Amino acid sequence: MMDMTVAPEKPDPDGIDQMLDELAALPVPDPSGDLVARVLVDAEAHLPAPGGRVVAAPWWQQIVRGIGGWGAVSGLVAATATGFVIGVGAVGDTGVDSFWTLGYDAAYDDTNLGLDAFGWALEEG
Predict the structure, then answer these.
(1) Of 1, 18, 96, 115, which shows the fewest CB atoms inside 10 Å?
(2) How far apart are CA 111 and CA 114, in angstroms?
(3) CB-based contacts of 110, cutoff 8 Å, min separation 6
(4) Which pTM value belongs to this model?
């Protein structure tokens, strides 16, 4: 069992400095000519064709890119849908059903209409 009253050994700062100095003194190998040639060929493959012109992205792609990509767009859609559902649910608890019955005849009332906050379903009486 380890004694908790004794401090663990501290590293020797002089030993670390000496080790880093020895590591820095080692020669660094140059990359092979084959590696350099492959990197240059790959770089040329990614260059645009000579005389080409830059095509502007459509406005919706610029908006998606400006927001942060499709992940950010999906997060905004989820937050919007959640906020809408929470907002509609809050109206249902207040007893204000006239919001849902706009445009209906006065013969309908909330007991016959059966519009609820999350389903918006017409129930038969």
Answers:
(1) 1
(2) 6
(3) 97, 100, 101
(4) 0.35
